[in-house]
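Translate sequence into structure tokens.
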Amino acid sequence: MQSPCTGGTVGNYTVALLVGQSASNLLFGLLADRRGHKLALVLGGLAASIGYVIAGTATLPLLYYLVFVLLGVYFSATFVSGLMIVLEFIGPEQRPTYVGITNSIIGAINVVIPLAGSWLATVSYGYLFALSAAAGLLGVLLMAFWVADPRHAPPEN
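Result follows.
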């Protein structure tokens, strides 16, 4: 049986991802400059979580274009604000250490999570998308309510 996903479809999904990413890069840059990187990361995480829910429940292939646009929005938020928020928490003398630690942790996660996700996909795509949405929503809630916005934190003495 031939797969309904052709090279053209993959190209169209890639265009949808890049449209979401390109458009939101500008918006997240402005938002992060004016309101802070925390808000950009919360909105990007919400976009990803909504995308995972849609991917897990979609009955029409057309809805996957929206999934890829939302994932582009998420990628944009992490590119614009992911490391920048770390830099707002620390002074210039500590930046190399914290950038190194942050990138090492993210690198380790980026090795382990796709392996776990690919295993879970062999069990059930529904479980994969549900777990992804739940983890994304947990991350959004932690960022929104547990992480202090460094721009609005009281100055240290």
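Note: The mean pLDDT is 91.
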